[in-house]
Design brief:
Number of strands: 5
Distance between the termini: 50 Å
Strand order of the largest sheet: 1-2-3-5-4
Order of helices and strands: HHHHHHHHEHEEHEEH
Radius of gyration: 44 Å
Largest sheet: 5 strands, mixed
Structural class: alpha+beta
Helix content: 55-70%
């Protein structure tokens, strides 16, 4: 933003130059070029003082006034203070003025120096006229070069500060994004892992209370499932707490030697067995159709995502599915892993067997999306069936 009023420092510089010129006049240090009184040198000195006041607010006007004052100074009697203030006006115009003006001052200074040299040599007809050219160069080119150098350094420093601020801002945005991603990851883990066991506990605790007096064996089975789910849920919670404490943790950061600690598709048999025990009293049967080649391995992110999608699908089955057979199918092509969970479906007027927050489908869709895959869940074209289908690319996960 351009200044509208002169800077206080400019008033001080102008006053110092004016006082210096008056002192030089009083001590008779004025170059006398004619018969005019020395006091006439105060006129260009006064004009140069005005130019000094305008050095930051109106560079073009200041230069025009300073040039007139300098020419007048050469004809009325030269005052060193006037010349020194002229160099400061050129310096200020280069430093504070528009870049276009600052660039044009260089060739203008060169032209002025050449013209002054030619005129001086022509009038003097002597090599001593070259001294005038040197003096003109010192008065014009030197202040321009000084101002341009400082201006360039300031612009480079400002650019570096801006670059540093942008880098800091990007780093902060990256940090926030990383925090949000980690929170989302842990939220998915908590939901997919713990909700599975808590849902089983809720379903079988309800069953245990309903048959507590009429069927001791059913109550014992329900309590056994509750105990198993509680132990598994506790193990999962310990694993997740270990992940939170170990910033560099992965899926195997906490715990070894158990299916809960390192989720793998090879552990689906145990997962389906637990689901079978949990859903037996509700008429649910489970089958695994694994068509993957046995001698090939999957990328760890794909295997984890597939395991969690199956786990969450089975949790939803225990909550919502109608009696019947639930089929988990895995198939691998050259580029992707296909996960399909088919379950019997019929609207239940009494609602789900256990309450839910609706975050399961969101979490499964996020897991597929993070790998660049696709996810779909909903009723099939045939009646009384619900399908969860996820296709997880293998090439992106391996890169």
């Amino acid at each position: 933003m351009a200044r509208r009023r002169p800077h206080p420092h400019d008033y001080a510089i102008a006053a110092a130059g004016l006082v210096s010129g008056i002192v030089l006049l009083l001590v008779d240090l004025i170059a006398d070029y004619g018969d005019l009184p020395d006091e006439w040198t105060l006129l260009p000195l006064a004009l140069m003082t005005v130019a000094e006041v305008l050095r930051r607010v109106a560079q073009k006007t200041a230069l025009a006034v300073a040039l007139v004052a300098l020419v007048g100074d050469q004809f009325l009697g030269s005052n060193v203070a006037t010349i020194v203030m002229f160099t400061d006006v050129v310096y200020a115009a280069t430093l504070y003025g528009p870049e276009r003006l600052a660039r044009r001052l260089a060739p203008a200074a060169v032209v002025a120096t050449v013209v002054a040299t030619v005129v001086a040599v022509g009038l003097a007809r002597d090599a001593k006229g070259l001294i005038v050219g040197v003096f003109a160069g010192l008065v014009t080119l030197t202040p321009w070069w000084t101002g341009w150098t400082i201006r360039t350094h300031r612009e480079e420093a400002a650019a570096e500060r801006l670059r540093a601020e942008q880098t800091a801002l990007l780093a902060e945005l990256d940090r926030r994004a990383a925090v949000e991603q980690e929170r989302a990851r842990m939220a998915r883990e908590l939901h997919d892992v713990v909700a599975n066991h808590l849902s089983a506990i809720a379903i079988h605790s309800t069953a245990a209370m309903s048959v507590a007096k009429g069927d001791p064996e059913a109550t014992a089975r329900a309590l056994a499932v509750i105990r198993e789910s509680s132990v598994q849920g506790l193990a999962e919670m310990r694993r997740l707490i270990g992940l939170l404490r170990n910033s560099g943790g992965g899926e195997a950061a906490a715990g070894e030697g158990s299916e809960a600690a390192v989720p793998r598709l090879d552990s689906l048999d145990a997962l389906i067995a637990r689901a079978s025990r949990s859903g037996a009293d509700n008429g649910l049967r489970f089958a695994l159709d694994d068509r993957r080649p046995r001698d090939e391995t999957l990328p760890a992110p794909v295997e984890l995502a597939a395991f969690r999608i199956v786990q969450e699908s089975l949790t939803n089955v225990l909550k919502h599915a109608a009696p019947g057979t639930v089929t988990v199918r895995l198939d691998r092509s050259a580029t992707a892993l296909l996960v399909v969970v088919d379950s019997p479906y019929a609207p239940d007027p009494e609602g789900p067997r256990a309450p839910g927050a609706g975050a399961g489908l969101v979490g499964m869709r996020e897991r597929a999306s993070l790998l660049g895959g696709t996810f779909d869940a909903g009723p099939r074209a045939v009646a009384n069936a619900w399908r969860v289908r996820a296709e997880l690319p293998l090439c992106d996960a391996e890169e």
